[in-house]
Amino acid sequence: MALTLGRKPGEKIYIIDAQGREIEIEVVKRDEKLSNFTQLRINAPQEFKIVRGEIYNGNNS
Asked: Where are the domains of the chain?
């Protein structure tokens, strides 16, 4: 499943799993000069692993 959203700085998205644990994703900055650059803040419980896409190899390592 995929969802595409537009968000402005300060707006948040929440992902909640079946156990009620929350991952909060907030847009903290968007550089208007670099239209393809956005900074995100991700707040998640420690048991969640957060990995950037360019280094993720798909096997949870």
From this structure: 12-43
pLDDT, tens only, 25-35: 999 987 777 66
Rounded Cα distance, 30 and 35, in Å: 8
Return the residue matching tokens 């991952």: 23
Q: pTM of the predicted model, to two decimals?
A: 0.77
CA-nearest of 29, 32, 23 to 9 is 29
Residues sharing a CB contact under 8 Å with residue 18, sequence separation 6 or more, in sequence order: none
Distance of alpha carbon 12 from alpha carbon 44, whole angstroms: 13
Rounded distance, CA 13 to CA 24, Å?
6
